[in-house]
Amino acid sequence: MNRKKSLGGSVRRFGKHCIRDWPLILLILIPTIYIIIFRYIPMYGAQIAFRDYRPKAGIWGSEWVGLKWFERFINDRHFSEVLTNTLTLSFYSLFVGFPLPIIFALLLNTMELPRFRKFVETVTYMPHFISVVVLVGILNMVLSPVNGIYSVFFHAFGGEGYPTDIRALAESFPHLYTWSGIWQGLGWSTIIYTAALSSVPEELHEAAKIDGASRWKRVLHVDLPQILPTAATLLILRTGSILGVGFQKVYLMQTVLNKTTSEVIATYVYTTGLGGSNQLSYAAAIGLMESIVNCILLVTVNWITRRLSHKEVGLF
Questions:
Q1: 79 Cβ contact partners less than 8 Å away, ≥ 6 residues apart
Q2: Burial of 293 (0-12, 13-18, 19+ CB in 10 A)
Q3: How far is CA 284 from CA 232, 271, 292, in A?
Q4: Average of pLDDT values for 186-192?
């Protein structure tokens, strides 16, 4: 009886809270429905990775083949190349793109001219609002060996004829992909660190000044420790998508000449699934394997971070 009364009381309290907070519930209802429709319901179709899917037969009517497609991908001659390219772009972007926003936020925080600081923030934020298609178009215009800025500088320094097309070099693709992404997202990525730095108590800086700490020492021992928990959380989230190299930008920059370094898991899934091969089960298996590896990496990095930080940060 006591358990039933306790359960009934909990239900009544929950109902009162729902009535009281109905605007907030309505506010989160739309994103919740969006996540359910576009994130959870599609998981039903993930089972085609374990079937020999035939659209005419449907999902349940297709033959169950177990891990056949996963084994095929691992034994595929393109497996090592695709995985290497994906990891190269991911870790290159992570090692270069992760610390730069932190450094940039710390530099902005030390600026003593408010107007100049706002100007720099605005200029660095603006590229974030450029679409990927426009970004690749700008990249092609700048690096064009015929009439691009690259060609202008080449002739200005005494070059004759047309310079080498950097876009066609396979070894230049990782650098173009990574640094164009940093140019586009550097300013936007600093926002969360700038917000974290704004909460640093001014008393800490005053005390450090009294102790004779230089500006560099205050950045190193006052500002940086304040944003480390935020940086650790963002590192965990970013590691969770280490294999999730964006499809759109890679596909737009990809050519026949640079395909040896630009073919990543996302583009390979598109090629095998919708690019003429129509191997839907095979493509689904590759995408599912990517998600599983990302999940394992996310849990691993989160566990390591919690151990190193004595459980002060971490997602779960």
A1: 73
A2: middle
A3: 32, 12, 12
A4: 89
Give me 198's structure tokens: 């704004």
Residue 208 near residue 218, CB atoms below 8 Å: yes
Question: Which pLDDT does position 316 carry in this prediction?
Answer: 47
Helices vs strands, H then E, count in the chain: 17, 2
Taking the C-alpha atoms of residue 66 and residue 305, their distance in angstroms, rounded to an integer, is 35
Strands (DSSP E) contained in the chain are: 51-54, 62-64
Examine the pLDDT at 313 and tell me if it is beyond 70: no
Which of 93, 104, 179, 91 has its CA nearest to residue 135? Answer: 179
Helix axes 280-308, 68-75, angle to 10 degrees: 80
Angle formed at CA 110 by CA 214 and CA 127, multiple of 5 degrees: 150
Average pLDDT along the chain: 83
CA neighbor of 285 nearest in space, from 118, 73, 20? 73
> Mean pLDDT over residues 275-298, rounded?
81
What type of residue is 136?
V
Question: Radius of gyration of the chain from Cα atoms?
Answer: 26
Structural tokens at position 61: 């009517």
Q: How far apart, in whole angstroms, are the C-alpha atoms of residue 201 and residue 19?
A: 39
CATH architecture of 67-308: Orthogonal Bundle (1.10)
38-53 pLDDT, tens digit per residue, is 888 888 888 888 988 8
Give yes or no for residue 8 having a pLDDT over 50: yes
CA distances from 177 to 97, 109, 312 (A): 12, 29, 35
Q: Is the dihedral of CA 17, 19, 21, 24 positive or negative?
A: positive
CB-count burial class (<10 Å; 0-12, 13-18, 19+) for 93 = buried
The yes-or-no verdict on residue 138 having pLDDT over 70 is: yes
Choose among 85, 190, 178: nearest CA to 139.
Answer: 178
